[in-house]
Design goal:
This protein is an alpha/beta fold. Helix 2 crosses helix 3 and helix 5 runs parallel beside helix 7. 40% of the residues lie in helices and 20% in strands. It starts with a strand and ends in a 6-residue tail after the last helix. It has two domains: 145 residues, Homocysteine-binding-like domain (TIM Barrel), CATH 3.20.20.330; 79 residues, no CATH class. The protein is globular and about 60 Å long. The longest helix has 19 residues.
């Protein structure tokens, strides 16, 4: 099954008025349908993301309120012709449950659920993938997708010039770059200055921690990183 997601991830009544939400969902689904064109066996998914509010007892948002917020978006999605619903990157089991209930009670469309887990293998609120699968299967969702575990907070440590160096991930997208940089640094026996120069040259989205404790936040782009490192080391290491 192949589908395109409508641009409705953040569309909910907490952020938009009733008329704005109606217009947004309608336009998003129409645009997705236009993008599909005459292609066969392609579907449009109403994409629903978290509200951004924490449910009680961790926050001040009531479960019933959350269900109704999701329900408003679900009803509009069904009204304007979505083929299925994808509940995307939820990190709270309770909010996931609220979204699923809203979908089940307000339409008969297939439901796909994705959850985002931290480096510890759990949701932000503590649930494990197996616990979520059990809950969601019991609620009758049609598919469950567990997002790749985040590498946020992961620290790469290695020894150069008889000193321990480290690079720390700030988010889940930079692990590949970090591994590439570490491998390059070790291969070419770069010292602290050389390592820092590479990080600065490629604008790595990571925090370089010098032996002095000085920290510097940089940005990321893997293809650009490989090109810059190749020039820096004077070697062809693009592959």
């Amino acid at each position: 099954m192949e589908f395109i997601t409508a641009n409705t991830f953040g569309a909910n009544s907490l952020k938009f008025s009733e008329d704005e939400l109606d217009a947004l969902v309608r336009a998003a689904i129409e645009n997705a349908r236009t993008a599909i064109g005459d292609l066969e066996d392609k579907y449009v998914a109403l994409d629903i993301g978290p509200t951004g509010r924490l449910l009680r007892p961790l926050g001040d948002f009531d479960f019933e309120e959350a269900v109704e917020v999701f329900a408003k978006t679900v009803r509009l999605g069904a009204k304007y012709g979505a083929d299925l619903i994808i509940l995307e990157t939820f990190s709270d089991s309770y909010e996931t449950k609220a979204a699923v209930l809203a979908a089940k009670e307000n339409c008969d469309l297939p439901i796909i659920v994705t959850n985002a887990y931290g480096a510890d293998g759990k949701l932000m609120t503590g649930a494990t993938p197996s616990a979520m699968v059990a809950m969601l299967e019991g609620m009758g969702v049609d598919a469950v997708i567990n997002k790749k575990l985040s590498t946020a907070g992961r620290i790469f440590r290695f020894t150069l010039s008889n000193k321990v160096r480290s690079i720390k991930c700030l988010n889940g997208s930079d692990a590949e770059v970090l591994e590439f940089i570490v491998d390059t640094a070790v291969e070419y026996s770069l010292g602290a200055r050389g390592l820092r120069s590479i990080c600065e040259a490629i604008m790595l989205d990571a925090m370089y921690e010098a032996p002095s404790g000085r920290k510097k936040t940089l940005k990321i782009d893997l293809p650009y990183a490989k090109e810059k490192v190749a020039k820096f080391t004077g070697a062809l290491i693009l592959n």
